[in-house]
User: Fold this.
Amino acid sequence: MEGHKGGLRPPNQVIKGGFAPLTPRGADTTLSVQDLWVEYRTRRGTVKAVRGVSLDLCRGEALALIGESGSGKTTLGLSLIRLIPRSARIRAGRVIYRRDGQEYDVLSLGSEDLRQFRWKECAMVFQSALNALNPVLKVWDQVYDTASAHRQAYAHRTRQRALDLLRLVQLDPERVLRSYPHELSGGMRQRVLLAMSLLLDPQVLILDEPTTALDVLTQRAIIDVLRRLRKELEFSLILISHDLSLAAELADRVATMYAGAIVEIGDVYETFYRPRHPYTLGLLRAVPTVTGQMRDLASIPGCPPDLVNMPSGCKFHPRCPYADSRCQEEELELAQVGRGHAAACFHWQQVQYELEAREGA
Amino acid sequence: MTGKLMELDHVSRTFPVGNLRVRAVNNVSLAIERGEILCLVGESGCGKTTTGRIVAGLLKPTAGRILFEGRDIWAMDDKGFKGYRKAVQIVHQDPYASLNPVHSIYKILSAPLFRHGLAVTQQEAQIKIRELLQIVDLTPPEEFLDKYPHQLSGGQRQRISVARALTVNPRFIVADEAVSMVDVSIRVSLLNMLSRLKDQLGVTFLFITHDLALAKYFAWEGRIAVMYLGCIVEVAATPRLINDPSHPYSRALLSALPEADPELTRTKKRVVLRSLDVPSLLDLPSGCTFHPRCPQFREGLCERQAPELAQIGDNRYVACHLVAPGMAS
Ligand SMILES: Nc1ncnc2c1ncn2[C@@H]1O[C@H](COP(=O)(O)OP(=O)(O)OP(=O)(O)O)[C@@H](O)[C@H]1O
Ligand SMILES: Nc1ncnc2c1ncn2[C@@H]1O[C@H](COP(=O)(O)OP(=O)(O)OP(=O)(O)O)[C@@H](O)[C@H]1O
Ligand code: SF4
Ligand code: SF4
Ligand SMILES: [Mg+2]
Ligand SMILES: [Mg+2]
Assistant:
């Protein structure tokens, strides 16, 4: 693969400054999001879809974004590559991308640089992308289009790379390249999209609900393929899914989103076994597992807030069993609750205490 | 009272597609006891919804019979069949599509009451509807009567769909992916509400889902039937099926399922299939239709003969040559 010579131009100014406190020590970050605010303007009012999100994506790591429908996961993902719809506006914040010792301010890239940035540096496979392939073009023509749009018109080399990637995602490359999308099953199309997203060797891959519409056996194939891709190629992964099991399978770290904000972030084992935010705990208690004992399950009462008219204080307080009057008045930022583990809750220690008491019992 | 309430007797259903016919449901026999929960699980397109619609009397089988309390529903007179359609209600996956957006909740729930003569005056309807809203946990009822579907959350809308099904006092409910569209955070409370209908109103359930973990939770005391390409390949009591599946396809499904527990899901033993491709219903494989993918495929047997669903234990049925040998058709 050619270097990124035809890619991003060196920045005219190198950005310095403090970063979010949660970088695992020693790891270098590829993407840094700092206090990002994104909103949609609608007839009903302003939808505050992303509220003050800060996070660091380390080189080679897989970070899962979980949370209920409407919590802002997709909006956050789209903002990172600035593909938000017209009605949306990034109101504040910075997205810093790092490569080869250089820093780029993604939110101020010009249109040509931005085009290079997408796909070549940071690729995204969209939610319900199964219909994203052009129905009248054979897969090969689409691969070729993607490549040539980014000055990679070396047909031979592109083809070779496409063949390798298709093989990596367990498809018969010759057959797939000659097919029209409708001739492929949903799982095959999803794997084609995965392969295409990696065609230009991006450093960051964002997958939005990559297995949601797929059957169990197909989901398994996609998960195994992703695992293999991560082993063979070096990229960082942002995995957006409301499906906790996908995060449990593939993530190194997990960030829980609620009402546009990250309310908890930590190592995947920490998050699943030692959640500290009542919302993460609530999500975990709500999903059954098929293996193992019958667990006591419980739903989270109520429903997610309206992002136009949000509750005061902690946005989770109307549904939270730990809420008190303080929670109704004040909203906390993320604070450290363990090693590489942060939560935004006044009563995280009570959550800890109860979990430990339960385990001890 | 126990005993068979609903029986599917060698039921098949085909649909014309161009000059061909798809076999959506293929020779399915099942019996559902009074007060039981039977879960139908399987992958997309295997025929679950078609089976559910046949059970609800919305679709006529192209072969076989549906027996309700021993009576063939398609041999009933008009009155009998109308009664059947009332006794068996279906709750669909998509609460957005199944509720009329321009009608208030009161209107949505009162219409079937008046239509079936279960209420005559508005006052009677009001009383009945309040009761129904209580049953589905939409309280206080006054808060919901004048609302429209778009003013409710997905979970609340699904509760309204259930309340509507309950207006006619059904004895049997077909729940077709009834909680699949709502957020995970509130699924369990919907399932608990449905369980209560079974316990308190004695409703029998055909619960259709593609999610085995949901099936486990909802039907722990019932049974699970696994469907593949239109056929039932295994039926067993839920704990047995989940902890010790017999059919190679059931095993593959259970082992493939990702779990919301990192340690568990990363160390789970996996069944590796011979092929990832799902065959087309228009061109089904010969013999056992799972044979091109089955890791236990036995050449010379599996691709030649279709295994029949055979009893291998107490209340346990499997369609596989290796698990239930000598039961070929
Ligand atoms: N184009 C849009 N115009 C107005 N509001 C929008 C638009 N897209 C999303 N929203 C709103 O922004 C909020 C966040 O939506 P987003 O799609 O980011 O959530 P999500 O977590 O990805 O949800 P899901 O799990 O359903 O995909 C929601 O309240 C949603 O209704
Ligand atoms: N009216 C119809 N005309 C033609 N084909 C049909 C019709 N209804 C269903 N089918 C076909 O029958 C097969 C079984 O469909 P069915 O909807 O019963 O599957 P399902 O198990 O409910 O799938 P899903 O999990 O996706 O809901 C599919 O191949 C479907 O395309
Ligand atoms: S801050 Fe209060 S309301 Fe918010 S999650 Fe913590 S305990 Fe609950
Ligand atoms: S009959 Fe043969 S192919 Fe079919 S499930 Fe059994 S072992 Fe596999
Ligand atoms: Mg989304
Ligand atoms: Mg269906």
About this structure: Residues 4-102+148-238 of chain B form a domain with the Rossmann fold fold (CATH 3.40.50.300). Residues 57 and 85 of chain B are 6 Å apart (CA to CA). Chain B has a mean pLDDT of 92.
